[in-house]
């Protein structure tokens, strides 16, 4: 009979406490009531044995769209939640069959570290949309709560959280797939938040490698040595006081393999690629935000930079000038062109600061690669040493490059027709691009695949036509570069890689 009597006593005490609380609320003035409330909160905090750490999904830094701490905790919990959480969320990776399981909201799991038990729980909070946004729906922002006993505060803060972050980074490396990013903003539909991300991505599994690259062996070896030194140069860059980044300028005619080289570099370094479209960037501030949102171990690429924006040293607003009837120039008041309201306002100064200004130090282990078909059009300040540290000329197809292509497409390492190709490329200096040669080496029929000779004959015929066309151009005094198709017709070299 003792337990029922004990419960009856506790019930009496609780009823008395509730009566006193109701009396205080109705009859005590506001000041004593708030004092009692504060004292009760302090008493509860003193007696409650647990402390909590909240980790929000949304970054408080306006330059970042998401919290890196939240992302790392999500990775860590995803590896443990499938074992103990009652409700899980399942997602498929883009362009992959890998199933990702994560802890659903309002779920709790336990974790143990050095004999200490901690509790992780997932929650969401709603926030009203900003009056300055076009999106009227209420945003749900996710956050985690880490609860632990107060006695273990130092262990949790100084050791356990570091363990969580290091374990999450190791999991990311293990499960990592290279990605190709573009600066086309999207809403993050995979998370509980409808926040806007500056970059969108897809899986990047380009097959190009240095083994299949149509390039001279010595140039390949030089590039590989430079890349490997950079990848292992963290301590060296810290010692000399420079940001751990390196710039490459790839220049040469269209079709010489600039984009293919970038893909081979990404594969060799195992880096993500950020393909930056400058014309879609509205201001220097937006350009800095894009830089902040890139990760380490990445390549930032701006292709055909001479065509992206007016990046010359002398910029003239031709729309402000109009020819007068007498041949002079007169000023006219510019009218609002509604098609220009969304034009990029990125300046040469903003791009230079992006490459090697103070903002470029916000991150490490990055490659910045520019490509151009016309190096002479670029402002010298843009491509000087320190910004574009290594200039790589992508030349016309050489004999060594041809042998690589023949091995790739036809599995041929030697053949009698190779001598004629070597003569055309080395002795007669025929200028054809690797892309043109690859197009003609690719078998189109089963007969060509089995025999392989017809493909070589097409390459030789194409080179001879290119030689004749070049001689004709030189005779006529026309300096325009051109390539020759299968029918001997010329095609201008304008275009991209």
List keywords for this structure.
497 residues, alpha/beta, seven-stranded mixed sheet, four-stranded antiparallel sheet, 41% helix, elongated, disordered C terminus
The helix content, as a percent range, equals 40-55%
| Strand count | 19
The spatial strand order of the largest sheet comes to 10-7-12-13-16-11-17
State the major sheet.
Answer: 7 strands, mixed
User: Radius of gyration, Cα only, in angstroms?
Assistant: 33 Å
Q: Roughly how many Å apart are the termini?
A: 90 Å
Q: What is the global morphology?
A: elongated
Rounded average pLDDT: 79
| Structural class computed from helices and strand pairing | alpha/beta
The fraction of residues assigned to DSSP E strands is 15-25%
The DSSP helix count reads 16
Tell me what you see in this structure.
The chain is of the alpha/beta class and 497 residues long. The protein has 16 helices and 19 strands. It has helices spanning 2-27, 30-47, 68-84, 153-175, 217-231, 234-240, 258-269, 284-292, 305-308, 348-356, 380-383, 399-410, 418-427, 434-441, 446-451, 453-476, and strands spanning 50-56, 88-92, 99-103, 108-113, 116-127, 139-149, 179-182, 186-187, 196-197, 200-203, 245-251, 272-275, 298-302, 321-323, 329-331, 366-372, 390-393, 482-484, 490-492. The strands form six sheets. It has a seven-stranded mixed β-sheet. A four-stranded antiparallel β-sheet has the order 1-6-5-4, with helices on one face. Strands 2-3 form a two-stranded antiparallel ribbon. The radius of gyration is 33 Å and the shape is elongated.
